[in-house]
Design goal:
328 residues; alpha/beta; Nucleotidyltransferase, domain 5; GMP Synthetase, Chain A, domain 3; 8-stranded mixed beta sheet; 32% strand
């Protein structure tokens, strides 16, 4: 018996030297950021750690991003950690400002920040948005967000961009950030285009984002929205190539039903893709990564710089090779 007690005492002493248990940490699930004038504002959505569960929002502001983040940590009821972040949300005003590229640099270099967190932009009031982030009954907010984002990505309705993904793109590709709003609950839909300067330059509707997902090879089946009609797609395949200064988009679709005739479906898809690529060009957002293909044709970094891809990209010609087959 004495040996058992001694063993238990040793175990207790050893575990006392371990890391803090979860209830002594506040794990942020969502981080929000905004700037108004000289004031930087930050929010974190964290579990309440109350017996009945639930979530609460802590917020802070400061004269710089660093000060606002430090004040946010001070406002948390426990040590605030960002290693479990599922999403970072930025106001449209901040994303459109010249400060935004620097914000990405700060977050990427900050120790402890989960770089697999999804990046999103909102036009909603940030305080109300953060307070409204609640999981369905019986689920955790982190799992709820992961499940919702997985479904929306498969449907092609949102982009798949994280902090680590954005950092890997460099000059060869520009990201599209997810749209988030509160409209009869949390809504994840559409995208926001970042230009070559790292700032927000335009937006995509959910239907636009579906087409971009189609060209990216992400959307492969489901209901494809085309303006006033839809296609019930059973199989989709696409390829985008840079050929002699022309972007050639080859798309193959099989579908079971449509709001259009067979000829009308092809014409409508061609028109919708043309409108989408015009938006990308206007925003100088090379979301399909054609710059990666252009870079492979350069002998060295100096040749890449002489190519001046950022100036060439908006002037690209686009051609769509469409093959649509209706199943009977």
């Amino acid at each position: 018996m004495r040996r058992v007690c001694c063993l238990l005492l040793v175990v207790l002493l050893l575990t006392g030297c371990a890391a803090l248990p979860e209830e002594d940490r506040a794990f942020a699930v969502v981080l929000g950021m905004d700037r108004e004038g000289d004031a930087w504002r930050t929010w974190a959505r964290i579990p309440s750690y109350q017996q009945e569960g639930g979530y609460l929002t802590v917020s802070a502001q400061g004269g710089s991003l660093g000060e606002a983040m430090a004040q946010l940590e001070a406002a948390a009821p426990m040590a605030l950690h960002f290693g479990q972040l599922r999403m970072m949300v930025f106001s449209r005003a901040l994303a459109e400002s010249g400060d935004f590229p620097g914000v990405m640099d700060v977050l990427a270099s900050r120790n402890g920040v989960r770089r697999q967190a999804a990046l999103a932009v909102t036009e909603h009031d940030m305080a109300s948005l953060m307070d409204g982030l609640e999981p369905p009954t019986g689920t955790r907010l982190s799992k709820s967000l992961e499940a919702m984002m997985a479904v929306r990505r498969e449907q092609g309705l949102i982009p798949d961009i994280t902090l680590s993904g954005l950092r890997r793109m460099g000059e060869r590709q520009q990201p599209v950030l997810m749209g988030i709003a509160l409209e009869d609950g949390m809504q994840l839909s559409g995208g926001w285009l970042l230009g070559a300067d790292g700032r927000l330059q335009g937006s995509l509707t959910a239907a636009d984002q579906q087409l971009l997902s189609l060209l990216s090879g992400i959307f492969r089946q489901g209901t494809l929205s085309l303006g006033e009609g839809t296609l019930s797609v059973t199989e989709a395949d696409s390829r985008v190539r840079l050929m002699d200064g022309e972007a050639v988009c080859s798309v193959r679709l099989r579908y079971t039903s449509s709001s259009f005739s067979e000829e009308g479906a092809a014409q409508r898809l061609d028109a919708a893709l043309s409108a989408l690529t015009a938006k990308l060009a206007a925003a100088r957002c090379d979301a399909l990564g054609l710059g990666r293909q252009a870079m492979t044709g350069c002998a060295d970094i100096e040749a890449w710089r002489r190519l001046d891809w950022q100036a060439r990209y908006p002037a690209l010609r686009w051609r769509f090779d469409l093959q649509l087959e209706r199943e009977t």
